[in-house]
Amino acid sequence: MLLNCFQIEHLEAGCDEAGRGCLAGPVFAAAVILPADFIAGQLNDSKKLTHAQRAALRPLIEREALAWAVASVDNIEIDEINILNASFLAMHRAIEKLQLRPGYLSIDGNRFKSFPQIPHSCIVKGDGKYLNIAAASVLAKTHRDEYMEKLHLEYPIYDWKQNKGYPTRVHRSAALEHGLTPYHRQTFTISSPDFFSFSDNDG
C-alpha cells in the first residue's frame, strides 16, 4: 500500500518525469500536492498501470489535488543540456507553476538538482511507494502521451501514437529508412549504440 507522502511536517509535492529514454519528443515532468485524505483507487507507478487506468486517474488527480502542474523540456533543449539536466529542469518548471508553494519535495529517482529554498528527498522507485509521486508519474505520462499523439499526425510513419517516441522496432526502422525529424533528439544519432537499444513498449 502506497503512503500519501514522504513526510508530514511540511506541505509536500511529489515530482516525477516521463520520456527520458525516448528518441523523439520532449521530456515531461509533473509536481503534485495531494490532500491528506486523498482516495487512491488504482493509483500506482504509471508504468504498472494500463493506458485506460492512467486515463481514468488523470482527471481524478487533477480534480482532487490541492495543486498540480506539468511542464516540459523540448528535444532542442535536451540536446543542449543533456537528458538528465533536462529532466531536472522540467521538474523545476513544474514546481514553479504550482499554485501552492510546497515546503518539501519528494523526487522519484536517486538524483535531483536542488530547487531554491525547498528541501527535498530523492526516493528510488518512489512512484511505487508514495501517492504524490505516483500521481505525478501519471500526469507526466498522460500529458506527454497526449503531446506525442498530436506529433504523430505530422509524422505518422514513426508510429508515435503507439510508441510515444520510445525506440521500438517500428520507430527505429522508420528512422533508419526515412531519417530523423525536427522532433528527434540529436544526441540519439542513428550511428549511436543507444539507438539500437530498443523497447517494444511505450514506457
UniProtKB/TrEMBL annotation:
InterPro entries: RNase_HII, RNase_HII/HIII, RNase_HII/HIII_dom, RNaseH-like_sf, RNaseH_sf. Manganese or magnesium. Binds 1 divalent metal ion per monomer in the absence of substrate. May bind a second metal ion after substrate binding. A divalent metal cation binds at D16, E17, D108. Pfam families: RNase_HII. The keyword Ligase does not apply. GO terms for molecular function: manganese ion binding; RNA binding; RNA-DNA hybrid ribonuclease activity. GO terms for biological process: DNA replication, removal of RNA primer; mismatch repair. It catalyses: Endonucleolytic cleavage to 5'-phosphomonoester. Its main location: cytoplasm. Transmembrane segments: none annotated. Keywords: Cytoplasm, Endonuclease, Hydrolase, Manganese, Metal-binding, Nuclease. It is an enzyme of class 3 (hydrolase). Residues 10-203 form the RNase H type-2 domain. Belongs to the RNase HII family. This is Ribonuclease HII. It comes from Pedobacter antarcticus 4BY. The lineage of its organism: Bacteria, Pseudomonadati, Bacteroidota, Sphingobacteriia, Sphingobacteriales.
